[in-house]
Write a structure and sequence with these properties.
13 strands, 11-stranded mixed beta sheet, alpha/beta, D-Maltodextrin-Binding Protein, domain 2, 239 residues
Length: 239
């Protein structure tokens, strides 16, 4: 191991891990307050390889707040969607896991396909600064994004404001559609959120080590095992 890796990954003697609590597919909180899921297990595996150092979870309600922590020095690594808008402050690995994102439309909607969403007058509810919000922000030409803080709030906004579509991760929309009689999930995906590990941009030795770590946990089958263990349905090991 490059001697600079530990000094960059665990400068305080513990591994501070930025965690997005809004990503319920990969992390959840137990009644006793402990975190469990794919992300906490991967953080523990990394800590083990660094010599069994303790892990401190630095939690945030959404991905945007996690990303903010890079500049503030709040964490040493973070499990977060790799997006160009975040790359100025964060050095990302390749994705270890991906989650498809699509739209839900209400009962009676004339929209039947993904290509019909980006039209003038169409209003789309989205979770502010989520990876799919960032993607849509740079991709949509005509439709209007209407933002809420967090995934549950974006659903409430969609329902209460009678918006034309709700953008979201497919596994979450699969649950949401059961709450809305007549609502439909559009077939296909407009993107797949690339879940990666990031470290502050200046930590070049740490970034290089994390790239190899992600390659190994995919190659060894660990990511696939954790997806199965935690029932993270709708996610896939990234290519």
């Amino acid at each position: 191991m490059n001697p600079n890796v530990k000094s960059e990954l665990i400068p305080s003697g513990k591994l501070r891990v930025g965690v997005n609590l809004g990503n319920f597919l990969l992390v959840n909180r137990k009644p006793d307050g402990a975190l469990h899921g794919v992300v906490p297990d991967l953080a523990q595996e990394l800590a083990r390889r660094l010599g069994g150092v303790p892990v401190e979870h630095v939690t945030s309600p959404g991905a945007g707040q996690v990303a903010d922590g890079a500049k503030a020095g709040a964490w040493d690594i973070a499990f977060i969607g790799a997006e160009p808008a975040r790359a100025a402050e964060i050095a990302f690995t390749n994705a270890y896991l991906e989650i498809p994102a699509t739209y839900l439309v209400p009962a009676g909607s004339a929209i039947t396909a993904l290509a019909e969403v980006d039209r003038p007058g169409v209003r789309i509810a989205t979770a502010a600064r989520s990876a799919y919000d960032l993607y849509l922000s740079r991709s949509l030409k005509h439709a209007q994004l209407v933002r809420a803080e967090g995934i549950p709030a974006s659903y409430d906004l969609f329902v209460n404001e009678k918006l034309d579509a709700l953008s979201g991760l497919l596994p979450r929309l699969t649950a949401d559609v059961t709450r809305l009689p007549g609502a439909r999930i559009l077939e296909g995906k407009f993107t797949a959120v690339q879940q990666a590990i990031g470290t502050p941009k200046a930590r070049t030795a740490a970034a290089a080590y994390l790239v190899e770590f992600v390659a190994d946990i995919k190659r060894s089958g660990l990511v696939a095992q954790l997806i199965e263990k935690h029932g993270a349905k709708g996610t896939n090991v990234a290519a």
